[in-house]
Write a structure and sequence with these properties.
The protein is an all-alpha fold. It is 25% helix and 0% strand.
């Protein structure tokens, strides 16, 4: 189990959404 990380810290799967 991994604790939810801040969206501004790391988003490997949704990084393209932030970079778009």
């Amino acid at each position: 189990y991994q604790p939810p990380l801040p969206a501004e810290q790391v988003k490997p799967l949704n990084d393209f959404d932030y970079g778009a």
